[in-house]
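---------- Forwarded message ----------

FYI, see the ascorbate ferrireductase (transmembrane) record below. Original note from H. follows.
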Amino acid sequence: FSFLMTEALLVFSPETSLLRSFSRKVKVRVHWALQLLALLCALLGLGVITYNKHLNGKAHFVTWHGLTGLLTVLYTGGQCAGGVLLLYPKLMKNWTLAKLKLYHATSGLVGYLLGCASLMLGMCSLWFTTLVTSVSWYLAMLCPLLTSLVIMNQVSNAYLYRKRSQH
């Protein structure tokens, strides 16, 4: 989920995207496909975990990790629905395409950070801290922290670039 979502957002990066020479339309389609795959992975993971907890008689969504994970999956589903509106902007008659893109990018950043928070909370669980110790735990924790910074930088740079080009 985290890998696919990160790659889906980096598709639009002029510095790091492997698709920088492709048209915007191609980038949008790749972004859409990767985000949909991320959502499907999240739904599959949620289903497997829920089923496993059911089999073992454990409570569902009682930890911060479980609650933020569920919220992330729901939020991502809503964000994907919002992305469909960008594919068909005429469905939103009173909104400009620029405003829809800005809201989608901003709310996408919130969803991405929510996913990173859920991942980090999972790394604080007893199960994870028992398996991953010492320097390995810190290195694992650095992954979502660093990718969050990269994504936030990209979104803010894209916003600033649009602001400058409008003037």
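H. also flagged this: The chain has a mean pLDDT of 90.
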